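Thread: Modeling a multi-component assembly for a lab meeting

Hi all, long-time lurker, first post. My supervisor asked me to bring a structural picture of a complex we are working on to next week's group meeting, and I have zero experience with this. I have the sequence lines for every component (764 residues in total). Could someone generate the structure of the whole assembly? Inputs are pasted exactly as I received them:
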Amino acid sequence: MNESAHLWLIPLFPFLGFLLNGILGSRLPRRLVSAIGVLAPLVSLVVVLGDFGATVISAASSCPTCGQVTALALPASESLSYPWLAIGALHVDFTFVLDQLSAVMLLVVTGVGFLIHVYSVGYMKDEPGYARYFSFLNLFLFFMSVLVLAGNFLLMFVGWEGVGLASYLLIGFYFSRTSAADAGKKAFIVNRIGDFGFLIGIFLVLTTFSTLSFSKIAALLAVSPDWHGPVLTVICLCLLVGAAGKSAQLPLYVWLPDAMEGPTPVSALIHAATMVTAGVYMIARTHLLFDRSPVALWTVAIVGAATALFAATIGLVQNDIKRVLAYSTISQLGYMFMACGVAAYSAAIFHLVMHAFFKALLFLAAGSVIHAMGGEQDLRRMGGLRTKMPVTFWTMTAAVVAIAGFPPFAGFFSKDPILYAAFLQGTGGKLLWLVGLITALLTSFYMFRLWYLAFFGEPRSEVKHHHSTQLSMLVPLVILGILSVCGGWIGIERFSAYLAPVAAAHRPLPTGNPFLEAILSIVAVLVALEGWLIADKYYRRKPERPAAIAAALPTGYKVLLNKYYVDEIYGALIVKPLLAFSKFGLGGVDILLAGVAWLFAGIASITGMILQRWQSGNLRSYAAWLAAGAAAVLIFVLLSNGWLHLGFAVGWKGWPLR
Amino acid sequence: MSFLQHDVPISWYLLLSAILFSLGVVGFLIKRNLITVFMSIELMLNAVNLSFVAFAYQWHEVRGQIFVFFVMMVAAAEAAVGLAIIIAVFRARSTLAVDRIDLMKL
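Re: Modeling a multi-component assembly
Sure thing. I ran the full set together rather than chain by chain. Output:
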């Protein structure tokens, strides 16, 4: 078709991997399964890298001054499209678009995805269902690349649902464990609520713009630069519901902590680095709509800030190493939403990328720890692992420092632009900034708490496998560690200049000055340092203090430990009434309907019993009925039409037709 | 041949056809032997054939005659199959009384 026809290769290879491992995997040797599973994302990664290079070059040539991009500049994008649906006035094409935004996102998805596949080879070595695991992981990559490449809402929704399916399958990977199966269902159902909002949003887009294509919508919006319909706000809020479901924001975040039931590499790939960021990606992709609706943008910002703070407070007291990371993921996603809410889409995507690096690393390192501890996830039973697992320790340290936001690590470079952009947004923005700053303090504290609990102090239980950390697990850790340290050196200016054709906000943004930015950065670093010092004090120097504080504030501690009882509240407010309603349906309506059905069935069978005698099998009785029937028809004809017909038949009245 | 064309009206042919058909029906209904029943069916078929030919002649319409050929051909095939079935039934039941052949299974 054109030079971009190779775009379909990106999703194709993971899909092939899914088919091969899914159908034949259980009969293939493990080495071959791992080879297929790891090669699929690698090939996609190579294709993406080629394209990425092309977009970098085209971006550089299209804007030599960089950053001087007007609102109407066309993105340097490649696309591939085939007609897909044509129903009446509705035309949807099967469109893949590779522009700067999807290139960055794909790079994360396939790059981090590839590393996690490699890690999985070692991590899942002794697990049953090895081929099933890799086929699902490849399926996830397939749907995620469809989601990212999609050039219209419908195709994006296909990928959106697909990653939900893959997530469900992988959360419930250990399906014989009830908690894992339940967690999978919970994730799927909560996501359905979000998807409902997303669908409504898509329908509204369709009725408003009569198209679902992102580029056509952009063109329509560009034609009428002053149009601000209230329907736009409604669309954006609906899309936000979808994004909140997928990206685990308030009030739909409850599935993500439970999703930690899945294997740890899955948590790293799907529930930290890629899938949960789909909501942020979606908002950045549709930011032309959000740009025109201040109400929707503020809602996004408030949801993000509230989620960031809320999840961080829960993260303070969790004892399960993966749950701490899960709440931290929710909190960091809150940051990204906050950035979207202040129209700093490039900052959001930048943080998304950096977060993918260090959060994937945190999960993988946690996976190594869990592996070494023989499946133990409770932080209170770890400790002293520093000397026993040096590589894990040092890479984990890099990630912890990165997420806490110390320069020159990745988190510092991506978190600061968000706080700065929020600070510039008037009084409300200052409030957002404050919330972000408190969250940064809490983040720093709970990450260092985890660090101290796991790696310092006396060992609180036996290390099971000393030799278990293999090369296939260590190499991804080291690569991600390097990325967590150096990734941020790209710098937000260069990154947003690269993304500008796609992600630059089409609304006036307040301008700041470098001096203010520097001051804010210093404040943020000091706050992070404070968090570290508190953690250091309570978990290294005075390890008996936390318990004393918890005892002194029993109510607060219990509320946090039980995650504000949100699950219980949802259970009482939504699940229980629904269950009661269903039970009423089963007991009342169902029995009524079943009764009616039984009544008709009874009538039918009694009639059958009577009529059955007719079917005697006797040839002559059948013949007699036949003859009687023929006679009856004849008599009927004669009586109703007189003898005239018979007369015609035998020619009594001559031949009227002649 | 001209006397045939004009002096025998079609109603006579039809009457003959009707008589033959009625004989077939009555035979089908009252006879107990399967072979006789079978012959009655053939009688009915041929009664219909007769009226077909008569009408075809009357209307100068060749399709009626072609129809008769079809009926005869199918009747021949049916006779072959039918007789084979009758032989099979007789071998299995040792009887051809239709009153006693009232089950599909043996």
